[in-house]
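Re-run with default settings, no changes from the original entry. Doing this only to confirm the output is reproducible before filing.
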Amino acid sequence: MEASTEQLRELSDWEPALGVVSVYLAFDPADRTGAWRTELRNGLERIRAEAEGAEHEPRIAVRATAGRLQERYEDDETRPPPRGEAGFVEVSEAPGREHWWTSGVAPAAPGVQLSPQPLLAGLLELAERGAPHGVAVISSEQVRLLRFAAGQLEQIEEWEMSYFERDWRERKSQSTNDPARAHGVSSSGRDQYDQRLEHNRERFLAEAGKLAGERFADRGIGDALVIGPAGDWTEFGKGIAQTAVRAESADRDDLISVPTGELSSHVEAAIERGRAKRDGAVVARALGDGDGRPGALGVQDTAEALGEGRVEQLVVDAAIGAAAEPLVRDALASSAAITIVRDELAEKLARAEGVAAILRY
């Protein structure tokens, strides 16, 4: 899924007369019990019950909207991947405005809720966690470029050193023209050959790194993981650093010959590790752990800082739900970055009511 900043801001300003039903569903391909159906059914029953005490028009509109949502999924015997879905449906008697996204990751808090405006914190997290990643699997003489999105990994290009220049074909030479194989070759000749080959490998990796960054950028990919030996990453990293793509060395294993289908779980785990590392640094900075000073801590202090335009980055525990919504809207309006965290990182935010912020000043 790719929810743009413009779409998020538009949704943030959307406030239909009778409200919005926000739907977050999680699909587990291994689950044959249809737990997501139970979650959906219970949620729809709950919002119908909430509307029973309302006036005639909103009560009828909620019933009609819940009925349309139920019909949307009635014909689906099973739900294949993607693993998550988010939707926002205008409450109205006749079909109204709707927005839907699918994701390769499951939402942190599946459910159905009726509220005056869309609940956006979950969508922000799905958009960030489900964003496409570039993956470069490298060795000294070969580079594979892949794209990971919605839980799926696909190879998009593959290069070998010999493709770039004719004089890089020494590694394939099997004749006596190869100074390392020639009968009676001197040690200095072998040294010169080895030096030239190493130079060509470094040049190949640097040029491949720059080209990889350009290829990823052309596909709208801003983040990339590089898998391969540390020595190869050094030169490849120099090349990709010349582009707008942010790359990090995710794994030092030599996986260049592993089939794409067998790499998927490895890549997904590496992406999660990289995200946890980045988000951990954000949480630590917001809380003032280490030598830094804390930013805004807690709902009230963070809300005040947002109102004053002082927030550089808002950090929110995914589990606090609707309590985060006013903060998320203010962050979107002030162009502050937003990070939604779960699990261990969320536990660290507990002392700040699940909310903190890095301040601009």
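The chain has three domains: 5-129, 133-258, 281-359. Residues 64 and 359 are 45 Å apart (CA to CA).
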